[in-house]
Amino acid sequence: xxxxxxxxxxxxxxxxxxxxxxxxxxxxxxxxxxxxxxxxxxxxxxxxxxxxxxxxxxxxxxxxxxxxxxxxxxxxxxxxxxxxxxxxxxxxxxxxxxxxxxxxxxxxxxxxxxxxxxxxxxxxxxxxxxxxxxxxxxxxxxxxxxxxxxxxxxxxxxxxxxxxxxxxxxxxxxxxxxxxxxxxxxxxxxxxxxxxxxxxxxxxxxxxxxxxxxxxxxxxxxxxxxxxxxxxxxxxxxxxxxxxxxxxxxxxxxxxxxxxxxxxxxxxxxxxxxxxxxxxxxxxxxxxxxxxxxxxxxxxxxxxxx
Amino acid sequence: xxxxxxxxxxxxxxxxxxxxxxxxxxxxxxxxxxxxxxxxxxxxxxxxxxxxxxxxxxxxxxxxxxxxxxxxxxxxxxxxxxxxxxxxxxxxxxxxxxxxxxxxxxxxxxxxxxxxxxxxxxxxxxxxxxxxxxxxxxxxxxxxxxxxxxxxxxxxxxxxxxxxxxxxxxxxxxxxxxxxxxxxxxxxxxxxxxxxxxxxxxxxxxxxxxxxxxxxxxxxxxxxxxxx
Lengths: 306, 228
Known about the structure:
The complex is a heterodimer of chains A (306) and B (228).
Chain A: H1 3-34, H2 41-59, H3 62-83, H4 93-115, E1 131-133, E2 139-141, H5 142-164, H6 166-176, H7 178-183, H8 188-211, H9 221-235, H10 240-266, H11 271-296
Antiparallel strand pairs in A: 1-2
Helix pairs in contact in A: 1-5, 1-8, 1-9, 1-10, 2-3, 2-4, 2-8, 2-9, 3-8, 5-6, 9-10, 9-11, 10-11
Chain B: E1 2-10, E2 12-13, E3 16-17, E4 22-27, E5 31-35, H1 42-49, E6 57-62, E7 65-66, H2 72-79, E8 80-83, H3 95-101, H4 110-116, H5 118-122, H6 133-145, E9 151-155, H7 163-178, E10 182-186, H8 190-196, E11 199-204, E12 207-212, H9 219-225
Parallel strand pairs in B: 5-10, 5-11, 8-9, 9-10
Antiparallel strand pairs in B: 1-4, 1-6, 2-3, 6-7, 11-12
Helix pairs in contact in B: 3-6
């Protein structure tokens, strides 16, 4: 097997991992701080992608589209939190799942009504078109590399926000004792709105970035949402560090599994069977990894619980 | 004029009534003791003052302004600093972060808190869950002072602590009193509490049954309302 191909797949895995991190970071913060299971997180991803694609089409600039995706997703997140989500904090998880599932349906239909059922297309900005050479002779898409870079920057920024700022202290304090932080004079409602909008903005940003790699369409968020849930369960709910490690793990394991498993099985089985069995196994692989990790560490790799 | 005024407060937990008319008052610069046996409604009174429970009837005013029905963070921002029963430091924050998370500008700064409790300075970068009980209590007091409250509320601040640490806490309370800090204290150690208090209120079965200076709380009254 050639090194460049392996390296390319590894980078693809990293890129998927970084996208998943952008989704999972918000999801894990929202679950960790507010105790809310937000199934509609995938819809915020979709909103970001649609905002970016439509604004980029109207203005001709991907970058304005990207800014619009952040603004639209954050605004949608803040609005959803104030209108619907804040009524769910005191409810049990079943009610939360039901209500946020309803939000998926409403937001998907709303988007279909607004944009129609044909997918939108978003071009990679000229600045990031082209490829860079890989060691060993391959080529790799510059845009995907840029996504990896941006994801690392966001991870650093988020770490700084949570670990070093007053807002981050309050978020962590709210995770451990929300009544107490309120009794000390911190407005929990607006803290929650900020956290939700922040998570929404990250999801929307992820949607916009991915929008240039695949078509922007209704329902694009839900497959990513499922993976993001796997990520936060593996990483430990409420932990940003866990979300980062879990996302990279899931991204790389999923991508490498799809690439390597059929080849490994081909050493033992006839080619056609190896292909089928390999593909089937590969799509289960991240769930097998999740089950293994949960068996060893039931609270995930980096549980936020003190 | 009184800083905190509580009149005929009645609070329910669901259908069961916990407070049946609590009345108390804290003047500017006063140290007021709130006393009573376990389960008589001291903590419920404090939670009702801070808006953590919603009283059904009665009024709470702070600085001349009615505060009943306000949300807890609004009440706290008017200038009430709570040191809750059980300390409730944020375990996943460092000592310094615990002090800073809810701090509001004023005379109290991290430097002055460390002067009051030098041990917190030594533990500055440690997570609160690695502190001893006494250090956590100091941290909870420091955290409340960092909001620069007009009234400090101490709920069982010496409970379950080693005698040496209790002395440190009482010394700190006396220092605060010396600086003119208004304090509402709930505590069971009468020998320490009575000398420092300017006024006492005693609760029995959710109602105020005694109010007056510590000297008026005779041995017979102590035995009737506070004895085990």
